[in-house]
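Please check the following.

. . .
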Amino acid sequence: MMTLPEGYGYVPSSLITIGWVLFWQSIMVGRYRKRAGVEYPQLYAEQAEVKNSAAALRFNCMQRAHQNTLETAPVVFVSTVMAGLKYPALAAAICVAYSFARIAYTIGYKSGQPKRRVFGSIVSNFSVLGLLSTATYVAYQLLPSC
């Protein structure tokens, strides 16, 4: 039977931050959707709408920021849980860094100037890489010796 390491409580606490980021992003997508007049179930504003409307461009940017977070969140969740089995404080710290990076990414992207997302993207990608690397090392450590 495996016992959780001291400090593992940091892991679920850090994972909750991703839920709050996603919740905030979904509210923002709804606001930007309304401003742009993009009806459901249309996922994005059409190119013609974007060319004629700053609100449509900003909606697409906000929607893309949310979608991109949804694309990476599963890897972050699994990697944080896995890395936390041996290094709970490190895993939690990287997970929280990821969440803050996603906020910076979203704020930059929703401006309607996609290049403003770069800082958040870089920190976010390094966070994912750190979690994946640590989780891979933990997985290796948990393998039975041959």
About this structure: Helices lie at 10-36, 47-52, 54-84, 88-109, 118-142. DSSP finds five helices and no strands in the chain.
